[in-house]
Amino acid sequence: MRLNFIVTPLLAALILAGCASGPLPAAPAEHALPTVPVAFKEGNARFTTVAPAEQAERGAWWLGFDDPVLGDLVERAAARNTSVQEAAARLAQARALLRNAEADRAPQIGIGAGAQRGAGADTAQGRQPASVLTAKANFSYELDLFGRLAQARDAAGLDADARAALLQSTRLMVQAETAQTYLTLRALDDERALVRQTVAAYDDTLRLTQRRFDAGDVAELDLVRVQGEVAANEAEALALDRRRTELEHALAVLVGEAASSFTLAPQDWRSALPRIPAGVPATVLARRPDVSAAQLSLQAAQARVGVARTAWFPDIALTGSGGFASTDLGDLFKWSARSWGIGALLSLPIFDGGRREANLANAAAQLDVAAAGYRAQVLGAFRDVEDQLAALRLLDEQAQAQGRAVTAATRASALSETRYRNGLVSQIELLDARRSELRNRRQALQVKSAQYQATVGLVRALGGGWDRGA
Fold this sequence. Notes:
Elements: H1 2-20, H2 68-80, H3 82-104, E1 108-123, E2 126-143, H4 148-214, H5 220-254, H6 289-309, E3 315-326, E4 338-347, H7 355-421, H8 427-461
Antiparallel strand pairs: 1-2, 2-3, 3-4
Helix pairs in contact: 2-4, 3-4, 4-5, 4-6, 4-8, 6-7, 7-8
């Protein structure tokens, strides 16, 4: 009769739990992954389905630029950049949480000791105070019959893997930003040199025009025009100096140094331009650590939905304790003072005001968020690769066209100089020819810089490399 009194409520609770646990909420259809294209729009590579490869070796891709200064800056940034350090700390935090989740599945053993004084037993002299000394070991173990602890451990493991992928993504981002900032600075060095050469040329023209004006050969208008050109180009050179200073300070932050103590001396731009084949296989998208991190976060969210569902099932724990208890310290560890106990604890909430339903709805919503984030990362990966492949193709064509423009403008400037000295053209025509040459040379430098930027951008879009065998 007593057994029925205990078991009947438990069976009723399990029946209620089974009725309350509904099916796992499905993610909205709009969060489905995009259809994988057959090939890159800008190449003949075919897409294939492969496992995530966020831990794949990327190699020192920046060595392809054959620039020792760039290599040194990238390595310093990888070691000292604050974003990388923060991502590494978050990975350590995630791994600690994983160990904590794994510890929940292991037996828990502890020891303790205590002393208590209070009212003792009734005696002929009345109730006398008494002391009780205890020393014991405790044991507990939760039976994970419904997989709650296992799924929580799996979710924590996926979180740690996602953090590892995000650390790799942060490293790649910092490497790419360092390379792009450095290459922009070097392009600016060449542009500054070109503008200063132009200023020097205009200074020569100004001196010549000043002598001719003093001799009465030209009008004051011609002299003022040359003075205006000199001043305008000097102002442009100063603007480029300001921009270079800003880039140098940005590099200091990237390599984890104070801008006040960081300097990078100007030098000619000698970096090589790696050629990335147009037929890069689409499998390299599996190397993108941000995509892998989003996928792992999605899987962790799925595991947490499972954890939320187990709230409708009972928690069962085995407990035990053993030790000694005595009123006399000298008798505490005698065999006659031994004490022990074992037990099993079962807990199951019946009515909680909708708390479990709310937790499940929250976990399902987090799953939807993770699914949308994963879909966004995949779409962004497709776009990034297509953007950079298209940019490299079009910039190559633009560089060729701009090269022809520079050749023609240089020739026109030389012819105008000769004709001006012979008195066949006006000074206005000469200045126009020189302005055209300067404009085309600077545009050629900007196109070259854009090619380097797009190359680094494609490296980043491909997850850190472009080897076909990777």
